[in-house]
Amino acid sequence: MTAERDVLISECIDGVVTITIDRPDARNALRHQTMAELADAIEEADRDDTVCCIVLAGNARAFAAGADIAEMIALDGPALERHPRTIAWQRIWRSGCPMIAAVEGVAFGGGNELVLSCDIAIAGAAARFGQPEITLGWMPGAGGTQRLARSAGKSMTMQMVLTGDAIDAQQALQAGIVSEVVPAGGALARATELARRIAAHPRAATRMARHAVLESFETPLSEGVRAEHAAFRALASSDERNARMRRFLNR
What we know:
This protein is an alpha/beta fold. The protein contains eleven helices and ten strands.
């Protein structure tokens, strides 16, 4: 790694940490160093009991423009199998902390896959989303075919993946890639507002609820409902749940 940092990490304020990709001259391309720093920052936040939500951000021009092609061209299939870059993605996906993407500018390739790895995404009106790997004779490799299909459905996913064409923020909203579109420049403020609302709730409850929703994409309905009810029962023994319920009843 170089001495120059690719990722900036804020202090934890109101239970929220903001992690910002900071490679403006490269449109925040996700080089190997960037991926390692992102994974480190997310893992550190996940371990911190004071952190209840993470916001991922870029800059006005780019959330992240994809992988660094100059690095990727040097990697063949066997090299990618256990490359630190591949492991960094897996580390990011293992996080138990809710994550919100604040997207301005482009989110292409790995940048879009990073958005899809988050639990909520807020887009500025000028944001654009795409999986252009096919134009380089390649394809998405960090969940771009799988998470995108679960959000946008077969037809939109096929169109984006097989043509490499980008979509705008309103199309991304209609496709379920983002949950809100705000005026350009406003994504970070709105994402932070939502993150603070999430962080105001009990940490155990938000993490269990997040996990239960994610399980809906991984398991049959009957298994998912059983897992949900198991978490529901576990939280019934939570001191914080009982205290909040008593406060509600005594209002």
